[in-house]
Protein backbone atom coordinates (compact mmCIF):
# COMPACT_ATOMS: atom_id res chain seq x y z
CA UNK A 1 0.00 0.00 0.00
CA UNK A 2 2.82 2.39 0.88
CA UNK A 3 4.73 1.64 -2.32
CA UNK A 4 1.63 2.20 -4.45
CA UNK A 5 1.01 5.57 -2.80
CA UNK A 6 4.61 6.61 -3.32
CA UNK A 7 4.36 5.73 -7.02
CA UNK A 8 1.24 7.82 -7.47
CA UNK A 9 1.37 11.38 -8.73
CA UNK A 10 3.49 13.11 -11.34
CA UNK A 11 7.28 13.08 -11.39
CA UNK A 12 7.35 16.31 -13.42
CA UNK A 13 8.33 19.39 -11.44
CA UNK A 14 5.65 21.91 -10.50
CA UNK A 15 7.44 24.59 -12.51
CA UNK A 16 7.27 22.53 -15.68
CA UNK A 17 3.62 21.67 -15.04
CA UNK A 18 2.75 25.35 -14.62
CA UNK A 19 4.58 26.29 -17.83
CA UNK A 20 3.07 23.31 -19.65
CA UNK A 21 -0.49 24.24 -18.77
CA UNK A 22 0.07 27.90 -19.67
CA UNK A 23 1.65 26.99 -23.02
CA UNK A 24 -1.06 24.42 -23.78
CA UNK A 25 -3.86 26.86 -22.98
CA UNK A 26 -2.22 29.64 -25.00
CA UNK A 27 -1.53 27.28 -27.93
CA UNK A 28 -5.16 26.16 -28.03
CA UNK A 29 -6.33 29.78 -27.94
CA UNK A 30 -3.92 30.83 -30.70
CA UNK A 31 -4.83 27.79 -32.78
CA UNK A 32 -8.50 28.64 -32.45
CA UNK A 33 -7.79 32.23 -33.48
CA UNK A 34 -5.67 31.13 -36.47
CA UNK A 35 -8.24 28.61 -37.71
CA UNK A 36 -11.07 31.08 -37.23
CA UNK A 37 -9.13 33.80 -39.07
CA UNK A 38 -8.33 31.47 -41.98
CA UNK A 39 -11.98 30.45 -42.17
CA UNK A 40 -12.99 34.12 -42.09
CA UNK A 41 -10.54 35.03 -44.86
CA UNK A 42 -11.75 32.11 -46.98
CA UNK A 43 -15.32 33.23 -46.41
CA UNK A 44 -14.42 36.76 -47.47
CA UNK A 45 -12.85 35.40 -50.67
CA UNK A 46 -16.01 33.45 -51.50
CA UNK A 47 -18.24 36.36 -50.55
CA UNK A 48 -16.27 38.79 -52.71
CA UNK A 49 -16.50 36.39 -55.66
CA UNK A 50 -20.24 35.94 -55.19
CA UNK A 51 -20.85 39.69 -54.96
CA UNK A 52 -18.82 40.35 -58.13
CA UNK A 53 -20.59 37.58 -60.04
CA UNK A 54 -24.06 38.70 -58.91
CA UNK A 55 -23.32 42.29 -59.87
CA UNK A 56 -22.08 41.28 -63.34
CA UNK A 57 -25.12 39.09 -63.98
CA UNK A 58 -27.46 41.90 -62.93
CA UNK A 59 -25.69 44.36 -65.24
CA UNK A 60 -26.03 41.94 -68.18
CA UNK A 61 -29.72 41.42 -67.59
CA UNK A 62 -30.28 45.16 -67.47
CA UNK A 63 -28.25 45.69 -70.64
CA UNK A 64 -30.08 42.87 -72.46
CA UNK A 65 -33.45 44.39 -71.56
CA UNK A 66 -32.69 48.07 -72.16
CA UNK A 67 -29.56 48.17 -74.40
CA UNK A 68 -29.77 49.80 -77.90
CA UNK A 69 -27.62 49.36 -80.96
CA UNK A 70 -25.59 52.59 -81.27
CA UNK A 71 -25.75 52.37 -85.08
CA UNK A 72 -29.54 52.25 -85.35
CA UNK A 73 -30.57 53.53 -81.90
CA UNK A 74 -32.90 50.57 -81.82
CA UNK A 75 -32.77 47.23 -79.98
CA UNK A 76 -30.10 44.87 -81.22
CA UNK A 77 -31.20 42.83 -84.17
CA UNK A 78 -28.81 40.02 -83.33
CA UNK A 79 -27.89 38.34 -80.04
CA UNK A 80 -24.29 38.11 -81.31
CA UNK A 81 -24.08 41.90 -81.74
CA UNK A 82 -25.63 42.39 -78.25
CA UNK A 83 -23.09 40.06 -76.68
CA UNK A 84 -20.15 41.63 -78.55
CA UNK A 85 -21.26 45.10 -77.51
CA UNK A 86 -21.68 44.09 -73.85
CA UNK A 87 -18.37 42.23 -73.59
CA UNK A 88 -16.48 45.12 -75.17
CA UNK A 89 -17.55 47.31 -72.24
CA UNK A 90 -16.36 44.89 -69.51
CA UNK A 91 -13.05 44.89 -67.65
CA UNK A 92 -12.86 41.65 -65.65
CA UNK A 93 -11.17 41.67 -62.25
CA UNK A 94 -8.27 39.45 -61.38
CA UNK A 95 -9.42 35.83 -61.49
CA UNK A 96 -12.73 36.77 -63.12
CA UNK A 97 -13.85 35.34 -66.47
CA UNK A 98 -16.79 36.76 -68.48
CA UNK A 99 -17.75 34.49 -71.37
CA UNK A 100 -20.62 34.97 -73.81
CA UNK A 101 -22.19 32.45 -76.19
CA UNK A 102 -24.31 33.69 -79.10
CA UNK A 103 -24.83 32.78 -82.75
CA UNK A 104 -22.81 29.61 -82.16
CA UNK A 105 -19.75 31.56 -81.11
CA UNK A 106 -17.93 31.78 -77.75
CA UNK A 107 -16.79 35.27 -76.89
CA UNK A 108 -14.65 36.40 -73.95
CA UNK A 109 -14.17 39.79 -72.38
CA UNK A 110 -10.60 40.99 -72.04
CA UNK A 111 -8.99 37.73 -73.15
CA UNK A 112 -5.74 39.44 -74.04
CA UNK A 113 -5.16 40.77 -70.52
CA UNK A 114 -7.33 38.43 -68.47
CA UNK A 115 -5.76 35.02 -67.81
CA UNK A 116 -8.89 33.65 -66.15
CA UNK A 117 -10.93 34.39 -69.28
CA UNK A 118 -8.56 32.35 -71.42
CA UNK A 119 -8.72 29.46 -68.91
CA UNK A 120 -12.49 29.24 -69.24
CA UNK A 121 -12.66 29.96 -72.99
CA UNK A 122 -10.03 27.35 -73.75
CA UNK A 123 -11.69 24.70 -71.57
CA UNK A 124 -14.78 23.60 -73.55
CA UNK A 125 -15.48 20.75 -71.14
CA UNK A 126 -15.74 23.09 -68.16
CA UNK A 127 -17.75 25.65 -70.13
CA UNK A 128 -20.06 22.90 -71.40
CA UNK A 129 -20.73 21.63 -67.89
CA UNK A 130 -21.63 25.13 -66.76
CA UNK A 131 -23.91 25.84 -69.76
CA UNK A 132 -25.60 22.46 -69.51
CA UNK A 133 -26.13 22.70 -65.76
CA UNK A 134 -29.79 23.15 -64.84
CA UNK A 135 -28.82 25.54 -62.06
CA UNK A 136 -28.07 29.19 -62.68
CA UNK A 137 -25.07 29.24 -60.31
CA UNK A 138 -22.70 26.81 -58.68
CA UNK A 139 -19.16 25.69 -57.96
CA UNK A 140 -16.94 23.62 -60.24
CA UNK A 141 -13.44 22.22 -59.94
CA UNK A 142 -11.03 22.86 -62.79
CA UNK A 143 -7.38 22.45 -63.66
CA UNK A 144 -6.84 25.92 -62.22
CA UNK A 145 -8.64 25.40 -58.93
CA UNK A 146 -12.12 26.07 -57.66
CA UNK A 147 -14.47 28.09 -59.86
CA UNK A 148 -17.55 29.89 -58.59
CA UNK A 149 -19.93 30.75 -61.45
CA UNK A 150 -23.32 32.07 -62.48
CA UNK A 151 -25.03 32.36 -65.88
CA UNK A 152 -27.80 34.39 -67.47
CA UNK A 153 -29.83 34.05 -70.66
CA UNK A 154 -31.03 36.75 -73.03
CA UNK A 155 -33.57 36.55 -75.92
CA UNK A 156 -34.29 38.91 -78.76
CA UNK A 157 -37.26 41.20 -78.61
CA UNK A 158 -39.47 38.79 -80.58
CA UNK A 159 -39.06 36.19 -77.90
CA UNK A 160 -38.35 33.56 -80.51
CA UNK A 161 -36.46 30.46 -79.61
CA UNK A 162 -33.47 29.14 -81.46
CA UNK A 163 -29.73 29.42 -81.54
CA UNK A 164 -29.74 32.73 -83.33
CA UNK A 165 -32.24 34.33 -81.04
CA UNK A 166 -30.60 33.49 -77.66
CA UNK A 167 -27.41 34.48 -75.86
CA UNK A 168 -25.83 33.13 -72.71
CA UNK A 169 -23.49 34.95 -70.41
CA UNK A 170 -21.27 33.05 -68.01
CA UNK A 171 -19.49 34.91 -65.21
CA UNK A 172 -16.92 32.75 -63.39
CA UNK A 173 -14.43 33.52 -60.69
CA UNK A 174 -11.29 31.44 -60.17
CA UNK A 175 -10.74 31.94 -56.46
CA UNK A 176 -7.42 30.05 -56.26
CA UNK A 177 -5.30 33.20 -56.36
CA UNK A 178 -7.34 35.01 -53.73
CA UNK A 179 -7.38 31.85 -51.63
CA UNK A 180 -3.57 31.65 -51.81
CA UNK A 181 -3.36 35.23 -50.55
CA UNK A 182 -5.70 34.31 -47.70
CA UNK A 183 -3.61 31.21 -46.97
CA UNK A 184 -0.42 33.31 -46.87
CA UNK A 185 -2.07 35.70 -44.43
CA UNK A 186 -3.19 32.77 -42.29
CA UNK A 187 0.33 31.30 -42.43
CA UNK A 188 1.80 34.64 -41.41
CA UNK A 189 -0.68 34.81 -38.55
CA UNK A 190 0.29 31.29 -37.52
CA UNK A 191 3.97 32.29 -37.52
CA UNK A 192 3.23 35.34 -35.38
CA UNK A 193 1.19 33.11 -33.03
CA UNK A 194 4.07 30.61 -32.82
CA UNK A 195 6.47 33.41 -31.94
CA UNK A 196 4.05 34.72 -29.35
CA UNK A 197 3.69 31.21 -27.95
CA UNK A 198 7.47 30.90 -27.61
CA UNK A 199 7.60 34.30 -25.89
CA UNK A 200 4.74 33.22 -23.60
CA UNK A 201 6.60 30.02 -22.72
CA UNK A 202 9.72 32.02 -21.81
CA UNK A 203 7.79 34.50 -19.70
CA UNK A 204 5.85 31.65 -18.07
CA UNK A 205 9.12 29.87 -17.23
CA UNK A 206 10.51 32.99 -15.55
CA UNK A 207 7.23 33.76 -13.79
CA UNK A 208 6.87 30.19 -12.56
CA UNK A 209 10.43 30.35 -11.25
CA UNK A 210 9.61 33.52 -9.33
CA UNK A 211 6.41 31.96 -7.97
CA UNK A 212 8.14 28.71 -7.01
CA UNK A 213 11.15 30.41 -5.40
CA UNK A 214 9.42 30.92 -2.00
CA UNK A 215 8.25 27.30 -2.14
CA UNK A 216 11.81 26.15 -2.82
CA UNK A 217 12.92 28.29 0.13
CA UNK A 218 10.31 26.59 2.29
CA UNK A 219 11.54 23.19 1.13
CA UNK A 220 15.15 24.10 1.89
CA UNK A 221 14.16 25.45 5.30
CA UNK A 222 12.21 22.28 6.10
CA UNK A 223 15.19 20.17 5.00
CA UNK A 224 17.55 22.16 7.25
CA UNK A 225 15.46 21.50 10.38
CA UNK A 226 16.77 18.70 12.56
CA UNK A 227 15.88 17.32 15.96
CA UNK A 228 18.72 19.37 17.45
CA UNK A 229 18.05 22.63 15.57
CA UNK A 230 14.52 23.93 15.11
CA UNK A 231 15.48 27.59 14.79
CA UNK A 232 15.27 27.88 10.98
CA UNK A 233 12.43 30.06 9.67
CA UNK A 234 11.14 30.90 6.21
CA UNK A 235 11.73 34.51 5.05
CA UNK A 236 8.42 36.35 4.65
CA UNK A 237 8.36 38.71 1.67
CA UNK A 238 5.29 40.63 0.56
CA UNK A 239 1.66 40.13 1.53
CA UNK A 240 0.44 37.61 -1.05
CA UNK A 241 -0.76 34.03 -0.55
CA UNK A 242 2.79 32.64 -0.46
CA UNK A 243 3.78 35.19 2.19
CA UNK A 244 0.77 34.09 4.25
CA UNK A 245 1.82 30.47 3.71
CA UNK A 246 5.34 31.31 4.91
CA UNK A 247 3.91 33.05 7.99
CA UNK A 248 1.69 30.05 8.70
CA UNK A 249 4.65 27.69 8.29
CA UNK A 250 6.76 29.84 10.64
CA UNK A 251 3.95 29.83 13.20
CA UNK A 252 3.80 26.05 12.92
CA UNK A 253 7.57 25.85 13.40
CA UNK A 254 7.25 28.10 16.45
CA UNK A 255 4.70 25.70 17.92
CA UNK A 256 6.84 22.68 17.06
CA UNK A 257 9.92 24.29 18.63
CA UNK A 258 7.96 25.30 21.73
CA UNK A 259 6.57 21.78 22.01
CA UNK A 260 10.04 20.33 21.53
CA UNK A 261 11.52 22.61 24.20
CA UNK A 262 8.63 21.80 26.52
CA UNK A 263 9.28 18.09 26.00
CA UNK A 264 12.98 18.52 26.71
CA UNK A 265 12.15 20.57 29.78
CA UNK A 266 9.67 17.94 30.92
CA UNK A 267 12.28 15.19 30.60
CA UNK A 268 15.08 17.19 32.19
CA UNK A 269 12.89 18.20 35.13
CA UNK A 270 11.75 14.62 35.61
CA UNK A 271 15.37 13.46 35.54
CA UNK A 272 16.48 16.15 37.99
CA UNK A 273 13.61 15.93 40.46
CA UNK A 274 13.42 12.15 40.46
CA UNK A 275 17.09 11.29 40.02
CA UNK A 276 18.42 12.88 43.22
CA UNK A 277 15.71 11.46 45.55
CA UNK A 278 16.10 8.10 43.89
CA UNK A 279 19.84 8.02 44.61
CA UNK A 280 19.32 9.19 48.18
CA UNK A 281 16.55 6.64 48.71
CA UNK A 282 18.77 3.86 47.37
CA UNK A 283 21.55 4.98 49.73
CA UNK A 284 19.13 4.98 52.68
CA UNK A 285 17.88 1.49 51.86
CA UNK A 286 21.48 0.26 51.57
CA UNK A 287 22.23 1.59 55.05
CA UNK A 288 19.18 -0.20 56.45
CA UNK A 289 20.69 -3.49 55.31
CA UNK A 290 23.77 -2.94 57.45
CA UNK A 291 23.97 -5.02 60.67
CA UNK A 292 24.10 -3.63 64.22
CA UNK A 293 22.52 -0.28 63.15
CA UNK A 294 21.25 1.65 66.21
CA UNK A 295 17.48 1.96 66.45
CA UNK A 296 17.56 5.75 66.54
CA UNK A 297 19.69 5.93 63.43
CA UNK A 298 17.49 3.33 61.72
CA UNK A 299 14.37 5.42 62.46
CA UNK A 300 16.09 8.54 61.10
CA UNK A 301 16.98 6.70 57.88
CA UNK A 302 13.39 5.45 57.53
CA UNK A 303 12.08 8.98 58.05
CA UNK A 304 14.46 10.30 55.41
CA UNK A 305 13.32 7.58 53.00
CA UNK A 306 9.70 8.56 53.59
CA UNK A 307 10.59 12.19 52.81
CA UNK A 308 12.27 11.19 49.57
CA UNK A 309 9.29 9.05 48.57
CA UNK A 310 6.95 11.95 49.33
CA UNK A 311 9.17 14.28 47.31
CA UNK A 312 9.14 11.90 44.37
CA UNK A 313 5.36 11.57 44.64
CA UNK A 314 4.98 15.38 44.56
CA UNK A 315 7.28 15.55 41.54
CA UNK A 316 5.23 12.94 39.72
CA UNK A 317 2.06 14.86 40.55
CA UNK A 318 3.59 18.09 39.20
CA UNK A 319 4.72 16.34 36.03
CA UNK A 320 1.25 14.89 35.59
CA UNK A 321 -0.25 18.36 36.00
CA UNK A 322 2.12 19.72 33.35
CA UNK A 323 1.16 16.90 31.01
CA UNK A 324 -2.55 17.67 31.55
CA UNK A 325 -2.10 21.41 30.99
CA UNK A 326 -2.21 21.00 27.21
CA UNK A 327 -5.59 19.21 27.24
CA UNK A 328 -8.84 21.17 26.60
CA UNK A 329 -10.45 20.09 29.90
CA UNK A 330 -7.50 21.08 32.06
CA UNK A 331 -9.48 23.81 33.84
CA UNK A 332 -13.11 23.86 34.98
CA UNK A 333 -14.26 27.42 35.58
CA UNK A 334 -16.76 28.50 38.17
CA UNK A 335 -17.61 31.72 39.94
CA UNK A 336 -15.31 32.07 42.97
CA UNK A 337 -14.33 34.71 45.49
CA UNK A 338 -10.74 35.82 44.97
CA UNK A 339 -10.39 36.70 48.64
CA UNK A 340 -11.71 33.33 49.83
CA UNK A 341 -9.26 31.44 47.64
CA UNK A 342 -6.44 33.59 49.02
CA UNK A 343 -7.51 32.88 52.60
CA UNK A 344 -7.80 29.13 51.96
CA UNK A 345 -4.31 28.98 50.43
CA UNK A 346 -2.82 30.94 53.36
CA UNK A 347 -4.61 28.69 55.88
CA UNK A 348 -3.29 25.55 54.19
CA UNK A 349 0.27 26.92 54.18
CA UNK A 350 0.03 27.87 57.89
CA UNK A 351 -1.28 24.46 58.91
CA UNK A 352 1.02 22.86 61.54
CA UNK A 353 3.64 20.66 59.95
CA UNK A 354 3.08 21.97 56.43
CA UNK A 355 6.07 24.33 56.32
CA UNK A 356 7.91 24.33 59.70
CA UNK A 357 9.93 27.38 60.67
CA UNK A 358 8.09 29.67 58.22
CA UNK A 359 5.58 32.38 59.02
CA UNK A 360 2.79 33.25 56.58
CA UNK A 361 0.55 36.30 56.49
CA UNK A 362 -1.98 37.75 54.09
CA UNK A 363 -0.63 41.08 52.85
CA UNK A 364 -3.63 41.91 50.65
CA UNK A 365 -6.93 40.25 49.77
CA UNK A 366 -9.08 41.23 46.78
CA UNK A 367 -12.81 41.63 47.21
CA UNK A 368 -13.84 40.46 43.76
CA UNK A 369 -15.56 37.59 42.02
CA UNK A 370 -13.84 35.77 39.16
CA UNK A 371 -14.69 33.03 36.69
CA UNK A 372 -11.74 30.69 37.48
CA UNK A 373 -10.82 27.14 38.42
CA UNK A 374 -10.23 27.26 42.20
CA UNK A 375 -8.32 23.94 42.24
CA UNK A 376 -5.80 25.03 39.59
CA UNK A 377 -5.41 28.47 41.15
CA UNK A 378 -4.68 26.86 44.53
CA UNK A 379 -2.16 24.48 42.90
CA UNK A 380 -0.38 27.42 41.31
CA UNK A 381 -0.29 29.32 44.60
CA UNK A 382 1.12 26.31 46.49
CA UNK A 383 3.89 26.05 43.87
CA UNK A 384 4.76 29.72 44.50
CA UNK A 385 4.76 29.06 48.25
CA UNK A 386 7.13 26.11 47.83
CA UNK A 387 9.38 28.28 45.70
CA UNK A 388 9.39 31.01 48.39
CA UNK A 389 10.13 28.45 51.12
CA UNK A 390 13.09 27.14 49.12
CA UNK A 391 14.57 30.65 48.88
CA UNK A 392 14.10 31.81 52.47
CA UNK A 393 15.69 30.99 55.82
CA UNK A 394 14.05 29.56 58.92
CA UNK A 395 11.90 32.08 60.75
CA UNK A 396 11.47 34.40 57.78
CA UNK A 397 8.05 35.70 56.84
CA UNK A 398 6.31 34.94 53.54
CA UNK A 399 3.52 37.22 52.30
CA UNK A 400 0.50 35.95 50.37
CA UNK A 401 -1.81 38.31 48.52
CA UNK A 402 -4.35 38.91 45.78
CA UNK A 403 -5.61 41.97 43.92
CA UNK A 404 -8.17 42.84 41.25
CA UNK A 405 -7.78 45.67 38.74
CA UNK A 406 -8.35 46.36 35.03
CA UNK A 407 -10.35 43.17 34.55
CA UNK A 408 -7.58 40.95 35.97
CA UNK A 409 -7.23 39.00 39.19
CA UNK A 410 -3.66 38.69 40.48
CA UNK A 411 -2.39 36.11 42.97
CA UNK A 412 1.13 36.43 44.38
CA UNK A 413 3.60 35.23 46.98
CA UNK A 414 6.45 37.47 48.19
CA UNK A 415 9.48 37.10 50.45
CA UNK A 416 12.14 39.45 51.77
CA UNK A 417 15.08 37.67 50.19
CA UNK A 418 17.76 39.41 48.17
CA UNK A 419 16.62 41.26 45.07
CA UNK A 420 17.11 39.63 41.68
CA UNK A 421 18.87 41.16 38.71
CA UNK A 422 16.24 42.43 36.20
CA UNK A 423 17.55 40.20 33.40
CA UNK A 424 17.66 37.21 35.73
CA UNK A 425 14.11 37.89 36.94
CA UNK A 426 12.90 38.13 33.33
CA UNK A 427 14.65 34.89 32.37
CA UNK A 428 13.10 32.95 35.25
CA UNK A 429 9.78 32.61 33.46
CA UNK A 430 11.14 32.44 29.91
CA UNK A 431 13.92 29.82 29.90
CA UNK A 432 13.98 26.19 30.84
CA UNK A 433 16.36 25.01 33.50
CA UNK A 434 18.70 22.29 32.26
CA UNK A 435 19.29 19.03 34.00
CA UNK A 436 22.37 18.69 36.22
CA UNK A 437 25.62 18.47 34.40
CA UNK A 438 24.69 20.67 31.44
CA UNK A 439 26.28 23.77 32.83
CA UNK A 440 22.99 25.74 32.92
CA UNK A 441 21.69 24.74 36.32
CA UNK A 442 19.37 27.33 37.74
CA UNK A 443 19.28 29.47 34.59
CA UNK A 444 15.52 29.37 34.17
CA UNK A 445 12.23 28.26 35.64
CA UNK A 446 12.05 24.95 37.41
CA UNK A 447 9.22 22.51 37.71
CA UNK A 448 7.17 24.59 40.15
CA UNK A 449 7.29 27.78 38.09
CA UNK A 450 6.47 25.75 34.98
CA UNK A 451 3.29 24.57 36.73
CA UNK A 452 2.45 28.19 37.62
CA UNK A 453 2.96 29.30 34.04
CA UNK A 454 0.82 26.42 32.74
CA UNK A 455 -2.04 27.32 35.11
CA UNK A 456 -1.85 31.00 34.11
CA UNK A 457 -1.79 30.34 30.36
CA UNK A 458 -4.64 27.83 30.62
CA UNK A 459 -6.79 30.65 32.06
CA UNK A 460 -5.62 33.07 29.35
CA UNK A 461 -3.36 34.92 31.79
CA UNK A 462 0.35 35.37 32.42
CA UNK A 463 2.88 34.52 35.11
CA UNK A 464 5.21 37.27 36.34
CA UNK A 465 8.00 38.09 38.76
CA UNK A 466 8.88 41.40 40.41
CA UNK A 467 12.03 42.14 42.37
CA UNK A 468 13.47 45.34 43.74
CA UNK A 469 15.57 46.81 46.48
CA UNK A 470 13.69 46.88 49.80
CA UNK A 471 10.66 44.99 48.42
CA UNK A 472 12.09 41.52 48.17
CA UNK A 473 10.88 39.29 45.36
CA UNK A 474 7.29 38.56 44.32
CA UNK A 475 6.15 35.72 42.11
CA UNK A 476 2.59 35.67 40.85
CA UNK A 477 0.14 35.22 38.01
CA UNK A 478 -2.66 37.37 36.65
CA UNK A 479 -5.87 35.88 35.28
CA UNK A 480 -8.88 37.46 33.54
CA UNK A 481 -11.81 38.02 35.86
CA UNK A 482 -14.18 36.82 33.13
CA UNK A 483 -13.74 33.93 30.73
CA UNK A 484 -13.11 35.34 27.23
CA UNK A 485 -15.46 32.76 25.74
CA UNK A 486 -18.13 33.15 28.40
CA UNK A 487 -19.44 36.40 26.99
CA UNK A 488 -20.51 38.20 30.22
CA UNK A 489 -18.96 40.12 33.06
CA UNK A 490 -18.00 38.60 36.42
CA UNK A 491 -20.77 40.49 38.17
CA UNK A 492 -23.38 39.11 35.76
CA UNK A 493 -21.97 35.58 36.09
CA UNK A 494 -22.02 35.83 39.89
CA UNK A 495 -25.58 37.15 39.86
CA UNK A 496 -26.71 34.34 37.56
CA UNK A 497 -24.95 31.76 39.74
CA UNK A 498 -26.61 33.09 42.89
CA UNK A 499 -30.02 33.26 41.21
CA UNK A 500 -29.65 29.69 40.07
CA UNK A 501 -28.66 28.51 43.55
CA UNK A 502 -31.50 30.36 45.25
CA UNK A 503 -33.95 29.11 42.67
CA UNK A 504 -32.84 25.53 43.25
CA UNK A 505 -33.25 25.85 47.01
CA UNK A 506 -36.73 27.42 46.83
UniProtKB/TrEMBL annotation:
<keyword id="KW-0597">Phosphoprotein</keyword>
<dbReference type="InterPro" id="IPR003660">
    <property type="entry name" value="HAMP_dom"/>
</dbReference>
<protein>
    <recommendedName>
        <fullName>histidine kinase</fullName>
        <ecNumber>2.7.13.3</ecNumber>
    </recommendedName>
</protein>
<dbReference type="InterPro" id="IPR005467">
    <property type="entry name" value="His_kinase_dom"/>
</dbReference>
<dbReference type="InterPro" id="IPR004358">
    <property type="entry name" value="Sig_transdc_His_kin-like_C"/>
</dbReference>
<keyword id="KW-0808">Transferase</keyword>
<keyword id="KW-0902">Two-component regulatory system</keyword>
<keyword id="KW-1133">Transmembrane helix</keyword>
<dbReference type="InterPro" id="IPR036890">
    <property type="entry name" value="HATPase_C_sf"/>
</dbReference>
<feature type="domain" description="HAMP">
    <location>
        <begin position="209"/>
        <end position="261"/>
    </location>
</feature>
<feature type="transmembrane region" description="Helical">
    <location>
        <begin position="188"/>
        <end position="208"/>
    </location>
</feature>
<dbReference type="InterPro" id="IPR050428">
    <property type="entry name" value="TCS_sensor_his_kinase"/>
</dbReference>
<dbReference type="GO" id="GO:0016301">
    <property type="term" value="F:kinase activity"/>
</dbReference>
<dbReference type="Pfam" id="PF02518">
    <property type="entry name" value="HATPase_c"/>
</dbReference>
<keyword id="KW-0418">Kinase</keyword>
<feature type="domain" description="Histidine kinase">
    <location>
        <begin position="269"/>
        <end position="483"/>
    </location>
</feature>
<dbReference type="Pfam" id="PF00672">
    <property type="entry name" value="HAMP"/>
</dbReference>
<feature type="transmembrane region" description="Helical">
    <location>
        <begin position="21"/>
        <end position="41"/>
    </location>
</feature>
<dbReference type="InterPro" id="IPR003594">
    <property type="entry name" value="HATPase_dom"/>
</dbReference>
<keyword id="KW-0472">Membrane</keyword>
<keyword id="KW-0812">Transmembrane</keyword>
Amino acid sequence: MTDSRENQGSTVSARLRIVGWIVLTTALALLAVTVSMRSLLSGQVAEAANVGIAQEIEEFRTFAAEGLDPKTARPFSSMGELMERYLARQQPMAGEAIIGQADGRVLAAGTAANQAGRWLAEDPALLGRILNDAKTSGIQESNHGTVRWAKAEAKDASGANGEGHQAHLVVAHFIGGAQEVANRQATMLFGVAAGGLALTAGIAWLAAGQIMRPIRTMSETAASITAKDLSARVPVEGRDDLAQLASTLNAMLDRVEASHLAQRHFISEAREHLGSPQRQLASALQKLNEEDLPRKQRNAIISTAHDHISQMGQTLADLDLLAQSSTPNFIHRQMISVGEVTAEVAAAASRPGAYPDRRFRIAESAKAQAWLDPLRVAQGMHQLIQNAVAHTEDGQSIRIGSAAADGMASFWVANDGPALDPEEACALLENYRSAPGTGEQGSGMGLGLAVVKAVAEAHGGTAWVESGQGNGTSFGFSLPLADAGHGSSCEEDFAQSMASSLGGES
